[in-house]
Amino acid sequence: MLVRLIDISRGAPERENFFPILGQLLGKISRDQIPVVEGMEISPTDDQFKALCAAAAASGMVGLFHMVGITPEAPTKEAAFQGRKPQTEVMITLKDIRAASRELSTTEGGSLNMVVIGCPHFSLDEFRHLVELLENKTRHPDVQFLVTTSRAMKAQATQEGFAQTLDAFGGRITLDTCILATPMLPPEIKVLMTNSAKCAFYTPGLLNKKVVFGSLQDCVHSAVEGRVVREDW
Question: In this predicted model, what pLDDT tens digit does every residue of 78-119 receive, in sequence order?
């Protein structure tokens, strides 16, 4: 399947929640085909690829994709298709990205009980970005703030002082699992907020909770304010 990104300005992929949204959309439209994405103007970071892949595998059956000019096996569209024609061709516009972003939330309301980030597990770079957002801020007492990561990554985050900043904010870390795999939510948790499209996709069905999808900055802002605060697309 050829997936062409159309009418998407360079600024859109630079927004931190663009790639999880794109992944959710790729999974939804590709079904059992292998998407070849054409028109990406920036090279994603490892964490952006991670968020895209997790979302695409959650919302669909994507086990492999190519990104023309980005992934090394696909320097050109012709190389990605190995000289063959695509079976299907689909266009994704900014309008589609906006619609996919809205689909990841099951509530728009202001009430919020918990922020969950780190699905897939947080990396050291993600911890670094998070603590920049947490500087001189404190979590609202009515909103829990949870980061899931690996034991090894927490050790590095502690060595760098990132875990201590999170603790001072009022957040906590869960190791080597996530809320989707391990029962850990008390019944009073009704509304979750996350920057993970994978977590947002699975939460209503697996956890029977309402979910709000937003950027990492949205998640931190909401945790401080004690209510859902989001910048819409």
Answer: 999 999 999 999 999 999 999 999 999 999 878 999 999 999
Pair 91, 61: CB distance under 8 Å: no
Fold for the domain defined by 114-225: Aconitase; domain 3 (3.30.499)
Which residues does 167 contact at the CB level (< 8 Å), separation at least 6? none
Task: Give domain limits for the chain.
Answer: 2-103, 114-225
pTM above 0.85, yes or no: yes
